[in-house]
Amino acid sequence: MKMKGLEVELWLSENRLPNTMKTRIMENVHRKLEENKNVHVEILFVLPPDYLSYVKRCLCLATLRKVPKLKDIDGLEELKGICDHFKPVIYAKDSFIIREGEALDMILLVTQGTVRSYTTSNGVKKDPTTPKHIKQGDFYGEELISWASKFPPSTELPISDKNVRSITRVEAFALTAEDLKNHVLLRYFWWQFTKGIDLNNLTDSQMLQLKELAVINPQRAFRGRKRAEKPAALPMKTRSMSVVPILSER
């Protein structure tokens, strides 16, 4: 149990979380270990929801600001809203995360470990490209934003032109295509991506949908600004535990 505690402390230090948050996370992890000393604790999957939300924002906000089409967004509350839709995922060493030629169905933000993206000679692209390493603070899947921001919306997912495979054990956060499309872009930032729409080519139903978005989203923006006026605070202590299932290799 002492060794597991040291591993948790190392994880907290590597991710540079605030000291106050470190203490609260340690308390929760120790409680989990006391319940079952033989359990293998994955920190991201035993945190209460409010703690997990805070950790996601600490680990993901800086990376989100690197993503094209998101990096110029001024509203911090909007970016925090995006963070809340990311889910923690863990991949073992040498696991396929995304396969070349298959649907690209998520954006991946790497927080620990190394991932390699590469093409093959018989893949989507005729000529293989130089492999790229995706490390802590990097992301993959930005093409999904262009797909999700189209209006009228497309029903077919884009195809990945690369394999994405873990070189080491990888901790990351993933935003699914469904959440990106239905809960992020069209709800938070639809006006950022509809500037080039040709209104003359829209059907009556599409025009109605656009008008509904124009009414709904300013209301959300107003509520977001009101929340932003409140001082930021660390999550309150809680005794509840939340266990999230780990995604397996595809």
Structural descriptors:
14% strand; alpha+beta; Jelly Rolls; 250 residues; disordered C terminus; 8 helices
Concise overview:
With about 250 residues, the chain is of the alpha+beta class. Helices cover about 40% and strands about 15% of the residues.
Provide a descriptive summary of the structure in words.
Residues 219-232 and 238-248 have low confidence and may be disordered. The protein is 40% helix and 14% strand. It has a domain at 76-228: Jelly Rolls (Sandwich). The strands form 2 sheets. A 4-stranded antiparallel beta sheet has the order 1-8-3-6. The two termini are 32 Å apart. Helix 1 (2-14) runs antiparallel to helix 2 (19-35). The protein has helices at residues 2-14, 19-35, 49-64, 76-83, 143-148, 177-188, 190-193, 204-228, and strands at 87-91, 96-98, 106-112, 115-118, 132-134, 139-140, 163-166, 170-176. With 250 residues, the protein is α+β, with helices and mostly antiparallel strands.
What fraction, in percent, of the residue positions are helical? 40-55%
Oligomer: single chain
Number of helices: 8
Task: Indicate the CATH class of the domain at 76-228.
Answer: Mainly Beta
Mean pLDDT: 76
Largest sheet: 4 strands, antiparallel
Q: What is the name of the CATH superfamily of the domain at 76-228?
A: Jelly Rolls
| CATH level-two architecture of the domain at 76-228 | Sandwich
Give the CA-CA distance, first to last residue. Answer: 32 Å
Strand-pairing-aware structural class: alpha+beta
The CATH topology of the domain at 76-228, please? Jelly Rolls
